[in-house]
Amino acid sequence: xxxxxxxxxxxxxxxxxxxxxxxxxxxxxxxxxxxxxxxxxxxxxxxxxxxxxxxxxxxxxxxxxxxxxxxxxxxxxxxxxxxxxxxxxxxxxxxxxxxxxxxxxxxxxxxxxxxxxxxxxxxxxxxxxxxxxxxxxxxxxxxx
Length: 144
Fold this sequence. Notes:
Layout: E1 10-12, H1 16-35, H2 40-62, E2 65-70, E3 73-78, E4 82-87, E5 93-101, E6 104-112, E7 117-121, H3 122-125, H4 129-143
Antiparallel strand pairs: 1-2, 2-3, 3-4, 5-6, 6-7
Helix pairs in contact: 1-2
């Protein structure tokens, strides 16, 4: 029997999030139909906003994994649903940016790869950015 290595850590969008976005699109269309009886502009705007929400939900279904790490490097989402592979040597910094506005604190995971900067929020990772940063640093140290 060969020993099995642990799977590479990966962080993905919560499965509930695309459903909430699709439900929001349905609510927008319903409200548009109810309140825009004679005003076609309101109905068109509600439809456009609903289409944008559905596109956003579709991205979460097509590319749910936003970030993955392995001994060779990390894979990040790039563009709408593409992937970019970054070897550990290309990763200059992994940090968590904290900002407080109106009493609310928002954290963003920043992965600096020299010419590119990759940003991930709590909902992108379905985990606190601080935890993900610590796991990435541990994976990076183990790869050396």
